[in-house]
Write a structure and sequence with these properties.
Order of helices and strands: HHH
Largest sheet: none
Strand content: under 5%
Number of helices: 3
Distance between the termini: 21 Å
Radius of gyration: 16 Å
């Protein structure tokens, strides 16, 4: 079974993940710099939300490309969302 088929979808998902990666590197810098805990927590929450959005964009892509049945998508969401 394949996953993301269309190159445009792959590029979009990879771009989202690259932004999350940048946020995580920024969080590491905040921790190293002993930044205010509230600011660090806020940035952690933002990174978590960005990763959640990437997950749901991934699921949407799988649905749009027609690779999974409704039952398979439901199982994926139950297990990981």
């Amino acid at each position: 079974m394949t996953y993301v088929l269309e190159d445009e979808h792959k590029k979009g998902l990879c771009a989202r993940l690259a932004r999350v990666e940048g946020q995580l590197r920024g969080l590491q810098r905040l921790l190293q710099a002993d930044t205010d805990p509230e600011k660090t927590a806020q940035q952690m929450a933002a990174a978590r939300k960005a990763l959640d959005k990437a997950f749901f964009a991934f699921v949407t892509t799988l649905i749009a490309e027609g690779q999974f049945t409704a039952a398979e998508v439901s199982e994926l969401l139950i297990r990981f969302a």
